[in-house]
Amino acid sequence: MSRSRTGHPALKVAEPVGAAAPAARHQRVRRPLAERAGRRATPYLFIAAALVLLVVFTYVPVVSMFGYSLLDWDGLDPVSEFVGAGNYAELVTRPELFGVFTVSLYYFGGTIVQLAAALYFAVILSFKVKFRNFFKGVLFFPYLINGVAIGFIFLYVFKPDGVLDTLLGLLGVADKPLWLGDRSVINYSLTGVSIWRYFGLNLVLFLGAIQSIPAHLFEAAQMDGATRWQQFRHIIVPGIRPVIGLNLILGVSGALSVFEIPYVMTGGANGSATFVIQTVNTAFKYHKVGLASAMAVVLLALVLVVTWIQRRTIPDDTTELS
């Protein structure tokens, strides 16, 4: 027992029973609120970096591109002239700038062939086939190779007396065309390279969609005596319809904006120039950045319109399979 200065025992004053309770209760309430706010903010912190990159490297350049399309600028001079819609008017009055879209028709046809072949192999490899994992890797591997490297590889394949000519010679073919020198053949050659490169992406998307279909549907179909064709028509196609639409959108938009392979292999020569190659040449070869930006805006608008039409004609509604 403690004593006071006078020597008498000190009296301990008791605190009210409920005095500390509100403070403790307030602290307990405040802590969960802070934890809850932290949990809510965590997802936004994770996506913040991706959003910053998306804005800086996608949306800001698109806005800047639209601004440049209203200028007469060579890309180097610090002085530029505002021309408004003059660059767009020049696009309309110069049909040779839009004439290169005819080259995209070859890639449109290649897209159909590519999707059909990818769907065919995806259906086969989705069933029990020997070495199917090996074939999946072999078919997907070209998509992993850099497009510039693929272009240089096929330059050796298509050159006179190259790999392709040698193989055709072994098969007895004597009259071999100039695969990259003949205007009637060059776009077929480049389209074939494009199919070979992007085939693996469509294959993987189709495989993933097919494998997501419940296995009991195929078992029930087999018990009912359904053939492989009937399973494909009534189970696989309805079940992967959204992925078919997605691949078609990717293929068509890619056909409109082909650049890498023809630019590396031919530079747009012999009638192989695409709209993107024409845009790049307009900007960096002829130093008309304003006109090239207008061409890029038109291409972006065209891709968006085509995508919208495809989404309207091929809905994403998933068929309920039971």
UniProtKB/TrEMBL annotation:
<keyword id="KW-1133">Transmembrane helix</keyword>
<dbReference type="InterPro" id="IPR000515">
    <property type="entry name" value="MetI-like"/>
</dbReference>
<feature type="transmembrane region" description="Helical">
    <location>
        <begin position="289"/>
        <end position="309"/>
    </location>
</feature>
<feature type="transmembrane region" description="Helical">
    <location>
        <begin position="44"/>
        <end position="68"/>
    </location>
</feature>
<keyword id="KW-0472">Membrane</keyword>
<keyword id="KW-0812">Transmembrane</keyword>
<dbReference type="Pfam" id="PF00528">
    <property type="entry name" value="BPD_transp_1"/>
</dbReference>
<feature type="domain" description="ABC transmembrane type-1">
    <location>
        <begin position="100"/>
        <end position="310"/>
    </location>
</feature>
<protein>
    <submittedName>
        <fullName>ABC transporter permease</fullName>
    </submittedName>
</protein>
<feature type="transmembrane region" description="Helical">
    <location>
        <begin position="239"/>
        <end position="259"/>
    </location>
</feature>
<keyword id="KW-0813">Transport</keyword>
<dbReference type="GO" id="GO:0005886">
    <property type="term" value="C:plasma membrane"/>
</dbReference>
<feature type="transmembrane region" description="Helical">
    <location>
        <begin position="195"/>
        <end position="218"/>
    </location>
</feature>
<feature type="transmembrane region" description="Helical">
    <location>
        <begin position="139"/>
        <end position="158"/>
    </location>
</feature>
<keyword id="KW-1003">Cell membrane</keyword>
<feature type="transmembrane region" description="Helical">
    <location>
        <begin position="105"/>
        <end position="127"/>
    </location>
</feature>
<dbReference type="InterPro" id="IPR035906">
    <property type="entry name" value="MetI-like_sf"/>
</dbReference>
<comment type="similarity">
    <text>Belongs to the binding-protein-dependent transport system permease family.</text>
</comment>
<dbReference type="GO" id="GO:0055085">
    <property type="term" value="P:transmembrane transport"/>
</dbReference>
